[in-house]
Amino acid sequence: MPSPIPFLDLYASNRPVETAFFRELRKLYRKSAFIGGSYVEAFEKSFARACGAKHCVAVSNGTAALHLSLAAAGVGAGDDVIVPAFTFPGAAGPVLQRGARVVFADVRPEDGCLDPRAVARAVTPKTKAILVTHLFGHPANLDGLRKALKGKGARRILFIEDAAQAHGGSHRGAPLGSLGDFGCFSFYPTKNLGGVGDAGAILVKSAAAAARLRRLRDHGQTQRFHPQEAGFNARMDALQALFLSLKLPRLGRDNARRASIAAGFLKALNGSGTLRALLPSADGVSAWHAFVVAVSGETRAAFLRHLDAAGIGHQIYYPRALPALKAFKAFAVTCPAAEDLARRVVALPLHPGLDAAQQARIRAALASFRPSSRIGTP
Ligand SMILES: Cc1ncc(COP(=O)(O)O)c(C=O)c1O
User: Fold this and answer.
1) How many Å lie between the centroid of ligand 1 and the Cα of residue 344?
2) For residue 159, what pLDDT band results from cuts at 50, 70 and 90?
3) Which residue out of 167, 186, 244 has the highest number of ligand 1 atoms within 8 Å of its CB and is therefore the one to mutate?
4) Domain ranges of the chain
């Protein structure tokens, strides 16, 4: 039996920058400016440029990016925020932390992103913002969402893009994260642009918004020990900025590799009546953060056994729709598409470090799965 294929292989994915990273790390160490400073500023400039954005504010992680954006948007008690019923559950936490009401909206079965029709139904006079997740790197239907919200609600609804899984993707040619009022990114190590620890960023259009976010990330102060408002400690470490700056120039290449691996998997699936891949819509380019299939019928357990027998790693992203989770029980609503996806989804290995032999084994496993498959079962 060939060696198992792990779901992720961070070492293989980061290998191209290893030598440069350790060379530069010594310089950073001697400089001893560990938080903020020139490495962070340089990364902010290059990430903003790469995303076609005016301003980038580097922060400590993706959840902080969401939290600071909600704070800067003025979201608080008495406000409603529309949140996808199927996404990384931690993304809804900051909405609760702000004291706002989470209003879940269902997603589209095709790509797992917000369904504009469900969003139109979720709007209330109190809707202040919408959290738009580009799930698995697939671009959410921003035009459809804007149309769905037009003329609805009592005020302009702020768009907070959750692009934590979507670095380098685009919607009608515009980079994801640059389209909303706030574009939030995570650089958690497993992301398309992943650090060597926690990190995140926010893209904004105005200098005033960027200045506010910079203040919020540093205890609400611009001058040391003189806070002007209640803030956070959400600064980025220089170490992360250094590593991310070395990886950023490779993002396009890495994403193209992800897309070509995904294309091979899709071909292998062709004709499968049981496995359906979640796919980006035609008007966008996916960052292919994950290759996720929905398994039809009651056959997910059989598919997982089939992958185990073939030595192929897998993950279930996400096992529950958000309204079904304890943390959000006060906001529970029925979201059939999200609930159905939670019962069916399986993510397969998809990262730039996958070699040709590993890809071929995954393709073979996809092509050979039959619901009655007994491979590897006792
Ligand atoms: C869609 C989404 N939003 C937000 C986050 C939060 O990012 P972080 O883990 O950097 O706080 C993640 C990370 O897992 C994510 O996948």
Assistant:
1) 22
2) very high
3) 186
4) 10-250, 251-368
CA-to-CA distance for 305 and 92, rounded, in angstroms? 32
Nearest CA to ligand 1 atom 10: 62
| Residue 343: partners with Cβ closer than 8 Å, 6 or more residues away | 300
Could you give the count of Cα atoms lying within 13 Å of 66 in the half-sphere of its Cβ?
Answer: 25
Cβ–ligand 1 contact at 137 (below 6 Å): no
Mean residue pLDDT across the chain: 95
CA of 151 to the centre of ligand 1 (A): 31
CA distance linking residue 161 with residue 226, whole number of Å: 31
Distances (CA, A) of 360 to 17, 294, 305, 351, 366: 26, 21, 19, 14, 10
For residue 213, the SS3 value is helix
Tell whether pTM > 0.85.
yes
The structural architecture, per CATH, of the domain 251-368 is Alpha-Beta Complex (3.90)
Atom of ligand 1 nearest to the CA of 63: 11
Q: Among 59, 60, 61, 63, name the best residue to mutate to test ligand 1's pocket (greatest count of ligand atoms within 8 A of Cβ).
A: 63
pLDDT tens, position by position, 242-275: 999 999 999 999 999 999 999 999 999 987 889 9
pLDDT tens-digit map of 34-79: 999 999 999 999 999 999 999 999 999 999 999 999 999 999 999 9
At the top level of CATH, the class of 10-250 is alpha beta
The amino acid present at 213, given as its one-letter code, is L
In this model, does residue 377 exceed pLDDT 50?
no
